[in-house]
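Justification of computing resources. Each target in the renewal requires a structure prediction run like the one illustrated here; the chain below, 577 residues long, is used simply to show the kind of job we budget for.
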Amino acid sequence: MSPDGRLTFLHKPWWPRAQKLREGESFTLDLNHDGRPDTVILRRGDNIIEAIDDTGRAVDILNRADTAYVVSYHRTGIVDRMVVYIDNNQDGKADEMEIRYYRDGYLRYAWFGENYDNDGTQIFHLTNWEYDGKQFQSKFRGNVMIYLNKYDPATQSWVPLSECPFAFWDPNHEGLAEIALRVSAAPLQSQAGKDMDYANHYDHLWTPKAVGLHEIGNLNVRLSYNIDPEPRREPWTQPHFNFGFTLVGAEPYDYPDMLYTNPRRRPPQAVVRIPWNNALQMAADYHARQTGFSWDEAHSVDRWEGQFWIGERELLYNTGDPTVRWNIRREYSGAPAAQRELYYSDVDKRYHLFGASESWLEVGHLVNARRDLEIRAFDNNHDGFLDTWEVFKGDSPHPVRRTYVRDPKTRKVPLDPARLGAEYNNKILPEAIEEDEELIAALRGFATDPLAEAYERAAKSAAPAERRRYCLDVARELYFLQARDVLYARNAAGSYPGLGTAAPGEAALSLRLGPIKGGYTLGDTLSYWKLAKEIEAFVEDYSQGRVTQSIEDLQRIRSDVGPSPARRQPSRTNPSR
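Resulting structure tokens:
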């Protein structure tokens, strides 16, 4: 390759012979002159490929263990791609892979991959000698790291750009990934520009010039975790991550041991990336100016990249293309943070981002094709804990419930996947499901709701406990809203609120104990007010997350109102009240 990155076959002594090859034909060369072939020149798919055995002794030159494939599309002699497999420990299995991309014969950028599982699995799936976007046929799982570098002809070196790195960890070696991390490398000055997703726009990779390393920053970090029960149920083609952080900052791309030189690599031999062993600590200590937190409530997202932010409501630069909108809880903090902190709230029995000032969750497109609820939360006293919840039903612009929680019942929890998973799966989810079922049974004595019933059915058919709990939570909220309104209407339908008109010659005395024609009695007022207070106690206990008390409230109300008010029209002149 020339210093400016140009590479062609045109000056090779074997090129005239290669031009005469027919589709499927090939010939071999002995480049190191040891008496046996180490290179194959072949024509495949109208391309000319030079395949070089870098060991010089392979029985099969095309074994993809220590082989470099240099490709000229359409037999022009100009190099378009180079795919290299590197076997670092010489066990016959590739440990690294790289794909170099050329334009008009000039090197522009490359994908690099490092596989730490020592299983020889191909890291990038290829079509026509380039990564084809088929993620589930690539090894983006287990213990592996991929990253992009752009070639800088001015310094004849690699510089980080775009996804650098995208790393995965599989601590229990089950072949999936429990942790996923992606770093967005981009020019520091791009964070204030019009291009809100600079790191993910690959047009920048094709430019002839490169931005110098000293001008590149780590502008966005995505860190996702899976805490599902082991062994995990999903196949490797449907990976799942429960939650993820999206962090936006302006850190210079300057990390210990980020220059990685492999003498088996073709020049430039030194690539730039955050070492796999240090990447998680970097993410834990990253100085974020903004933080987004996402939780897959419905256990329905199977993106290999993890759980990350969506391009709506709060802008986070360089976060990537928009992802799933529905049934993902979003929490946002615009305050600087140097650590990732979580807390648990016993009000909604969920983990939250400490410091989040706002949150939203759009419920829908699960049992139908519309939005059913939106649940918003805010930290109004600015202590780092969400304390105010609003619930919107359907497309209503007004909340149908608004609650200020005096005591969110919070406790900080460490960002330890093993500990979080044990508590979440063995305690939080089972207890939440049990409470939901008990409260729903009590609510159904006062109200019916076809939509809530649909979510109950969805819960029964859900395999993951997380999805079952979420569907029951939604059903419970819908039943609550319906029961609350039924009870309010039931109480207001009595004779006292309507006042009425006394008969001619009679005063509408409120203190008379017996019935008054057209009026009300003292008994009416006592019953009305007693029930009103019981309803408010129920609404308050429910809103504060006191499930046991809510059920007890409903039992008291039921003893006062008799048969279910959801199933009969209450009388206005019932003196027994």
